[in-house]
Amino acid sequence: MRVASAAAALLLSAATASAQPAAPGPTLSQVRQRGTLACGIPPGVPGFGAQAADGTWQGLEVDICRAIAAAVLGDAQRARFTPLSSQARFPALQQGQVDVLTRAVTWTQSRDTQLGFNFGPVTFYDGQGFLTRRANISRAQDLQGSAICTFSGSTSEANLADWARANRVTYTAVLVSEPAAMRTAYEEGRCAAMSTDASQLVGILTTLRNPAEHQVLPDRISKEPLAPVVRHGDEQWTEVVRWTVFALIEAEELGVTSGNAEAMLASDNPAIRRLLGANGDHGPMMGLDARWAFNAIRQVGNYGEIFERNLGAGSPIGLARGVNDQWTRGGLMYAPPIR
């Protein structure tokens, strides 16, 4: 009996200790002291990170940054954006120029273990494809002997080489650093095709002169799980980024939106009450306010709202949800419970 009582007391003590507000770690402290969240985003990729005519940044990865800012600082407008090329993104994070990369970064084993980074949850499941002119091309193998534009130092460059080797396709790589340079090289005829994440290609297609003359081929030559990235060594900051993304995904599953979040505070559903901070101390566990997820959802929207606004059927990109739909509808978006 004494042993059982001692074990119960130990478990209660551990549970009580874990419920205490966490002290801010180095990154959270820096962000709060600065008063802004510094995010590395794509350098002009429609649907993911691009500037509108009025100079404001728009896109799925821009909105992920805003959601993190709302969770951490209580205000989505305190997000600050730095567009970064494939070559510049990792040094910028390593050197502390940005707090998080929300731009398209493929989660790979070597990046996870060798570069000193931690990856958050996948925010977009993608695959590498090809954009070409419609004339005489119906599949990727038709590009035999062609010049193909891709991003230098990226997984796209490595995937293209692997695919060509496996399929005995010869090609000339035209390496560029960012989407605008790729589009220019393609339009000037320096490459017969562009190859990178298919979602980016769909966005680039909308910016070409006479888009109807071009196509994104159905071929997919890789898996590209795109996720936010933070520096290794600050586990609290990893948790903040990770659970903010999960909160956006969970909110969609539970039917919590930017429009009804306030009313949902009175919900009888325990999962919704925990998500929005009406019950529990899940924000303080990470050093955040109890309303961390509420602020992100109310100010930016749940994952489905973010997707539809930037990439969905009503946007210029017009992508179907596909594998980026909720698991309850046959997709891969699935969040662990907040409890």
From TrEMBL:
Solute-binding protein family 3/N-terminal domain span: 36-268
InterPro entries assigned: Bact_solute-bind_prot3 (IPR051455), SBP_3_CS (IPR018313), Solute-binding_3/MltF_N (IPR001638)
Superkingdom of this protein's organism: Bacteria
Keyword Transmembrane: no
Gene3D superfamilies in the cross-refs: Periplasmic binding protein-like II
Keywords from the named record: Signal, Transport
Signal sequence range: 1-19
UniProt-listed PROSITE patterns: SBP_BACTERIAL_3 (PS01039)
PANTHER family per record: AMINO ACID ABC TRANSPORTER PERMEASE, AMINO-ACID ABC TRANSPORTER-BINDING PROTEIN YHDW-RELATED
Family recorded in the similarity comment: Belongs to the bacterial solute-binding protein 3 family.
Name of the featured protein: Amino acid ABC transporter substrate-binding protein
Source organism per UniProt: Roseomonas nitratireducens
Lineage of source species: Bacteria, Pseudomonadati, Pseudomonadota, Alphaproteobacteria, Acetobacterales
